[in-house]
Amino acid sequence: MINPSQFFKCLSDETRLKTVLLILHEKELCVCELTEAIDESQPKVSRHLAQLKNISVLNTRRQSQWVYYRLNEELPEWAKQVLMTTLDAQKDTIKPYLHNLSAMCDRPNCCD
């Protein structure tokens, strides 16, 4: 069970919040897609993803050499609602990151 204090503390970081919102919007993303979208280094993005995974906000799925991150389906309903409400309210804020993602060349294919 996720602790509300940990949940909100973890999401108080701008990089982690952007990451979760992008993953929520796109359903699933890998590290290379996130680094391109938010224009951060791979080590920084990976570190933040690990923190989100450690508190059970995100899960992973490995396919070939890619590790895809997605929202943990077992998140409590209150946490999912907080994230969906935040995504709905921040659609304009994440537009530039979605644009970066759509402009990415050689995006991994999740269905190889």
What's the gist of this structure?
This protein is an alpha+beta fold. 60% of the residues lie in helices and 12% in strands.
What does the model show?
Strand 2 and strand 3 form a beta hairpin. The chain is 60% helix and 12% strand. The mean pLDDT is 92. By secondary structure, it is an alpha+beta fold. It has helices spanning 4-11, 14-26, 31-38, 42-54, 77-89, 91-102, and strands at residues 29-30, 58-63, 66-71. The termini are far apart. The chain has 6 helices and 3 strands; from the N terminus they run ααβααββαα. The chain has a 3-stranded antiparallel beta sheet.
Topology diagram in text:
Layout (H helix, E strand, L loop, with lengths): L3 H8 L2 H13 L2 E2 H8 L3 H13 L3 E6 L2 E6 L5 H13 L1 H12 L10
Antiparallel strand pairs: 1-3, 2-3
In whole angstroms, the N-to-C terminal distance is 34 Å
**pLDDT < 50 stretches:** none
The description of the largest β-sheet is:
3 strands, antiparallel
> What sort of overall outline do the alpha carbons produce when their principal axes are compared?
globular
- SSE class: alpha+beta
Q: What's the mean pLDDT score?
A: 92
Keywords:
alpha+beta, 3 strands, ArsR-like_HTH, HTH_ArsR_DNA-bd_dom, single chain, 112 residues, 12% strand, DNA-binding, three-stranded antiparallel β-sheet
